[in-house]
Amino acid sequence: MALAPWRAPLARALHRNRSRPDSRYLQLATMDRDGYPANRTVVFRGFFESGDRPMLVSDTRSAKIEQIQANPAAEVCWYFAKTREQFRLRGELTVVTAETEPAELRLTREQLWHNLSDAARQQFTWPSPGQPRQEQGFAIAPPNSTQPPPHFCLILLEPNRVDYLALRGEPQDRIIYTRQGQDPWQAQGVNP
Ligand SMILES: Cc1cc2nc3c(=O)[nH]c(=O)nc-3n(C[C@H](O)[C@H](O)[C@H](O)COP(=O)(O)O)c2cc1C
Fold first, then answer.
1. 64 lines ligand 1 (CB under 6 A)
2. Which of 42, 104, 134, 145 has its CA 20 to 30 A from that of 166?
3. Is the CB of 188 under 6 A from ligand 1?
């Protein structure tokens, strides 16, 4: 299946900014139970099956997972400092755990666990995120690299709107890509 039209500029931005580790950090905004946006930094973990769905990993015990389960609507905002480009990807999130169907999703979750550094895997041995801190409870040994703990999850974003802004150039370039259901993507240049 053909890639979405915003994938080429995003792939280019990832490539041109690859010398900067922070080019793989993006902000993920969800909605909380009180109607406030909840925004945090997460690491981009590639595209699911090299398609249009960015992958993230997280801990099902963190607040974002309850928020996503109540309302899967989300937006990620990604700024590439070297090339001065912003991508805002809006869409719906899916949380993948050991129980999720189909099997490809579970296998990808296991693969991402395996690919993490020991230090990153270690964080999943820590007590529940966001709970009051106790002095004890932070394990030293890194967990098994082939067996993710039940609270390790993959988060997939299925974008339905992408707002691309390139600051370089006079005037700047801004393109809104949208998609209704499974229809083809539409691209519209707009004023920056
Ligand atoms: C540079 C950076 C990268 C981070 N990467 C992740 C990540 O990949 N997954 C994640 O769940 N949290 C990540 N965090 C922590 C989140 O920003 C956040 O503090 C945590 O997930 C709890 O968020 P929540 O209470 O809204 O669920 C990262 C934080 C920073 C500063």
1. yes
2. 42
3. no
What domains are defined for the chain? Answer: 7-100+151-189 (2.30.110.10)
Q: What 8-state DSSP symbol labels residue 151? A: T
The structure tokens listed for 11 are 């792939």
Q: How many angstroms separate the alpha carbon of residue 39 from the centre of ligand 1?
A: 9
What radius of gyration, in Å, describes the C-alpha atoms of the chain? 18
Q: How far apart are CA 49 and CA 52, in angstroms?
A: 9
- 77, containing H or E segment: strand 73-80
Cα distance between residue 164 and residue 120, in whole Å: 31
Q: Measured in angstroms, how far is the CA atom of residue 42 from the centroid of ligand 1?
A: 5
- The SS3 assignment for 89 reads strand
pLDDT tens across the length of the chain (192 residues): 789 999 999 999 999 999 999 999 999 999 999 999 999 999 999 999 999 999 999 999 999 999 999 999 999 999 999 999 999 999 999 999 999 999 999 999 999 999 999 999 999 988 899 999 987 767 777 789 999 999 999 999 999 999 999 999 889 999 999 999 999 999 999 999
Q: Is the CB of 129 under 6 A from ligand 1?
A: yes
Please answer whether residues 4 and 52 qualify as being in contact, where contact means their C-beta atoms are separated by less than 8 angstroms. yes
